[in-house]
Amino acid sequence: MNIIGHTLQGLALLANLLAGAGFLFCSYSQYLSPVAHPVLSCAGLFFPFFLFLNALFLLFWLFVQWKFSLVPFLFLLAGWGSIRSYAPWGHKEEAEGKETLKFLTYNVMGMPVEKGDSVNPIVEYIRKSDADVVCLQEYPVHDEKIRKALSFYPYVETFAVAGWNGMACLSRYPILSVERIGYKSVSNGSFLLRLKLDKDTMAVVCNHLESNKLDAHDKQVYEEILKSPGEKNVKSGGKYLLGKLAEAAALRAPQADSVAQAIVGNKCRYMLVCGDFNDSPLSYAHRIIGRGLHDAYIEAGRGPGFSYNRNFLYFRIDHLMVGEGFRVLEADVDNSISASDHYPLWCVVEKL
């Protein structure tokens, strides 16, 4: 190989090392405190970009200089856990004859009804879901018509958060108690419920953590970046949007800490922790809340499972976790309904 070839190969190897370092940083950014490092803690959002780069380098070296393919392979191996969290490849498990339950979490965006609809599509979706426990976020707490429409569930608790915005838990099991988990937020909240699960007690934690608060102007900035991805546009718009995301992440971190403390303080064999975390599976909030729990989608879902689906933004920010008393059989982000800016997330578990 001539000097030019060696030089190009060396530059490609250097670029691979930089891409690998970025990949690992994104993979493990969930261990950074968003309060201390708000911007850096958002690195997980760039994970798919660096994953794609390292996959390309792996293919490149296999065709150009196969020995160097070990470099991207080792990077991917070091971030394997994050790859599995971001885009799992789970499969359906067969029940072993024990009791099964279905859980559903859904940010319903106020449960809107299109003009001309005779029934609310979200109400009908919940009815047909046949879920045993349903947790709803952005639920219209003062809408008596909606509440009556959901009366096919014998036990219903609603929680006002701010104005019309609230949350609800629909259950086929008796709700023994409800308490709010204390943390600072103007328009978000988390609630702990105890349900009577036959002879056992089940703890349910329903969450709607701090929103990223991307308004119409912010979404316009994002769309402009996609339409005209020039250096100046990406640099100025990207810096602005990253600042907003970092600010929200710093607010979510203490909320996640409070939820995690409540989980530890009320730990029991049968637990369900779910809701709109407004954060990805590679985030501080997901990691700190999920300690000691099983993420149902990671265990039985397939692919990235984007649950937020508007304005060219696609992320899995809704999560569903269960305790050691449940074995996850199935899980899915259901994109068959588009009545909200989120898709519902559900799982089927077997009681151990």
From TrEMBL:
Matches recorded under Pfam families: Exo_endo_phos
Gene3D superfamilies: Endonuclease/exonuclease/phosphatase
Name this polypeptide is given: Endonuclease/exonuclease/phosphatase family protein
Organism: Bacteroides gallinaceum
UniProt cross-references to InterPro entries, sorted A to Z: Endo/exonu/phosph_ase_sf (IPR036691), Endo/exonuclease/phosphatase (IPR005135), TDP2-like (IPR051547)
Membrane-spanning intervals of the chain: 12-31, 43-63
GO MF assignments: endonuclease activity
Source organism, top-level taxon: Bacteria
Keywords: DNA damage, DNA repair, Endonuclease, Hydrolase, Magnesium, Membrane, Metal-binding, Nuclease, Transmembrane, Transmembrane helix
Cofactor(s) required, per the database record: Mg(2+); Mn(2+)
Domain Endonuclease/exonuclease/phosphatase as annotated: residue spans: 104-342
Presence of keyword Nuclease: yes
Taxonomic lineage from the root: Bacteria, Pseudomonadati, Bacteroidota, Bacteroidia, Bacteroidales
Cross-referenced PANTHER family: TRAF AND TNF RECEPTOR-ASSOCIATED PROTEIN (PTHR15822), TYROSYL-DNA PHOSPHODIESTERASE 2 (PTHR15822:SF4)
Keyword RNA-binding: no
